[in-house]
């Protein structure tokens, strides 16, 4: 299965956290939101993921 995850947007409702970090990389419960999503998709058997990025799209998960 192939999943497309839209990650674009400024994250204006999460300010001031999203001034320097995109919203998918904000930590919740000890890991980035995107990490929680990818964990669930892995359990569901998803093998291919495409990310649609925008604001701060070149930021790294690591």
Q: What can be said about this structure in brief?
A:
The chain is of the alpha+beta class.
Question: What does it look like?
Answer:
The protein is α+β, with helices and mostly antiparallel strands and 62 residues long. The chain has one domain. It is 18% helix and 23% strand. The chain has 1 helix and 4 strands. The strands form 2 sheets. Strands 1-4 form a two-stranded parallel sheet. It has a two-stranded antiparallel sheet with strand order 2-3. A hairpin with a 2-residue loop joins β2 and β3. The mean pLDDT is 85.
What percent of residues adopt helix (DSSP H or I)?
10-25%
Amino- and carboxy-terminal Cα gap: 26 Å
The secondary-structure class comes to alpha+beta
Strand tally, please? 4
Beta-strand level of the residues, as a percent range?
15-25%
Q: Give the strand order, joined by hyphens, for the main sheet.
A: 1-4
Q: How much is the radius of gyration in Å?
A: 12 Å
The outline comes out as globular
Largest sheet: 2 strands, parallel
Summed up, the domain count is 1
Number of helices: 1
Q: Segments where pLDDT lies below 50 for 5+ residues?
A: none
Chain-averaged pLDDT: 85
Element pattern in H and E: EEEHE
């Amino acid at each position: 299965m192939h999943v497309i995850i839209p990650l674009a947007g400024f994250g204006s409702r999460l300010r001031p956290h999203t001034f320097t970090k995109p919203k998918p990389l904000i930590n919740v419960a000890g890991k980035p939101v995107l990490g929680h999503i990818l964990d669930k998709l892995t359990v569901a058997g998803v093998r291919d993921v495409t990310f649609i990025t925008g604001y701060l799209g070149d930021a790294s998960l690591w």
